[in-house]
Design brief:
12 strands; KDO_kinase; 3-stranded antiparallel β-sheet; alpha+beta; Transferase(Phosphotransferase), domain 1
């Protein structure tokens, strides 16, 4: 039991055989996903939630950004399979879970090569139970000091394991069960040896920008300078140990 991989024609799939079987490629088909999710559509920036064999799962498709993304939204210049975005994120999640870090369990990834030089792909992860994003939580009311401290310490914990999150924002942080923090969406992230101080500080600064942005955009968003200082103090204390 463990992780299995197969390739047929131009399609490659890697999957966790403790959760899904070799027929898991059907989970990536838009028509099947629409039925399983109650009408969910595979769109840019939108995760599709669905259930399979009693397990709550999350599907996402990788999309190009920037100017190139306006022309070819779902394909990328071809890379060796191990370097494709979905393979990298799948394996990064595996490695972080082996470190004991709170991230979603990777379930399956699919890459389709598009000769001569392009590919597209998708990733399926296990949904974090009883969770909401940091943005959603702050729209419901203020968080207590202990949660801000725990979040600061958690970010430091990832950084002490040399994990770089390419887009640490309020939508990529989950609060589960009202007390446990998770980080999600590690597309373009990396485990670096070592993680530079500049990259670590860049992650923290990115989160602050996200908090400020949503504080000015979302009704009822409860975030204060005091909250940030608690998070920052906890982060620095953990990094110093």
């Amino acid at each position: 039991m463990g992780y299995q991989q197969f390739t047929h024609r131009r399609v490659s799939v890697i999957y966790d055989d403790e959760l899904v079987g070799s027929d898991c490629e059907k989970l990536f088909q838009p028509a099947w996903l629409a039925r399983a999710s109650g009408g969910g559509q595979v769109q840019r920036g939108t995760a599709v939630m669905f259930e399979y064999n009693g397990i709550q799962l999350v599907f996402k498709r990788y999309h190009r950004g920037g100017l190139a993304g306006r022309i070819v939204k779902k394909t990328y210049l071809y890379s060796p399979l191990a370097d494709t975005r979905m393979w990298r994120e799948f394996n990064m999640l595996r490695e972080m879970r082996e470190m004991g870090l709170p991230v979603p369990r990777p379930v399956a990834a699919r890459c389709v090569s598009l000769p001569p030089v392009a590919y597209r792909g998708s990733l399926i992860t296990e949904r974090v139970a009883d969770s909401q994003t940091l943005a959603e939580a702050l729209c419901q009311g203020p968080l207590d000091e202990g949660l801000w401290e725990a979040l600061g310490a958690l970010i430091a914990r990832f950084h002490r394991h040399n994990v770089y999150h390419a887009d640490l924002n309020v939508h990529n942080i989950l609060l589960a069960g009202g007390s446990d923090w998770y980080l999600i969406d590690f597309d373009k992230g990396a485990i670096r040896s070592p993680l530079s101080r500049q990259d670590a500080e860049g992650n923290v600064a990115r989160l602050r920008r996200s908090l400020d942005k949503e504080a000015g955009r979302l009704p009822g968003f409860r975030f204060s300078e005091e909250n940030w200082q608690i998070l920052l103090d906890a982060y620095r204390a953990k990094m110093a140990t």
